[in-house]
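Q: My hope is that you can spare some time for a protein that puzzles me. Underneath my words sits a plain record pairing an amino acid chain with its backbone structure tokens. Those tokens are not coordinates but codes from a learned vocabulary of shapes. Thank you; the sequence and its tokens follow:
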Amino acid sequence: MARSMWKGAISFGLVHIPVEMYPAASDQGLDLTMLDRRDFAPIGFKRYNKATGKEVSWDDIVKGYEYSDGEYVVLSDEDLRRANPEATQTIDIIAFVNAEQVPLIYYEQPYYLAPGKGGDKVYALLRETLRDVGKIGIANVVIRVKQHLAALVCVGDTIVLNTLRYPDEIRPTDELKIPAADSKAAQVTEKELQMAKALVEGMSEKWKPQQYHDTYREDVMALIKKKIAANQTKTLTEPEPEEEKPAKSNVIDLVSLLQASLGKKPAKAAAADDDDDDEPPPRKSRKPSKDDEDTDETPPPRARKAPAHAATHASAKRTTAAKSTATKTAAKKTATKAAAKPAAKAAPARRRKAA
């Protein structure tokens, strides 16, 4: 655990609990260094005296308040502490409220509170009290040079101080285009609501924080390792030209989206309405049979809504007509061949008589 960043006491009524404050969160973001793209040398920043241009070390830097143009009041850490010793050393609980009454938007930064020397018993007393009554303590505390509104919350066996934003630090939503509950454009049907509830229930599970991690950071680290392995540490990847994306429709079919999310086959946009009055789609054309190809007769077009028995009768009629035509054609060919044979026999006799 890191060194304590603040030492003081929790105070409510006549109770005084010595505590030490520790950071409860750590930044696991990517630590990227700015480089000069010409030679990839790291960029440095200097603290310098604006009057002389010379660099200034941390030991020679003090805080000051500019009360007029170019004029400052110098304030040391001791000056800031003496301005209000009690405020800078005390977490002063001013009220206890139900936790659900404080919207999440007010919560800012968490800190662990650990008991100071001799404070174990009173620390445990406050922790168990917060746990039993189900409330949080609203307090004032000064961290560094700023006074914060804070909430003391019991998390397991630890009391957590979470700094809160002041009401004037929360931006109003007046300028945002938020749909009203009675807006016609944002009306939700009972079917959509029930399907959304079913989706929420299906995705509900116990809170397991260990299963969540920064996948983007992992992907970037994998890319870094890949570039190192390929010896491309000095290669700048230029952006590719963006492809034109097809225009999206502003109409959202919530029913289809919800059904797809639930693992069902998406329905049509009018799935909630009955489609009995709609005409059925036209039937597909029948493929021509082998007999149909032997004749030039074209069957009459079939009506789109013809009954099943009428279609069968028409098909049988066409088949009979095709067979009849084929029979007549075959008989005609046979008669032609029979007539051609006597003519072929008579031809030599005429030639012999002429000779």
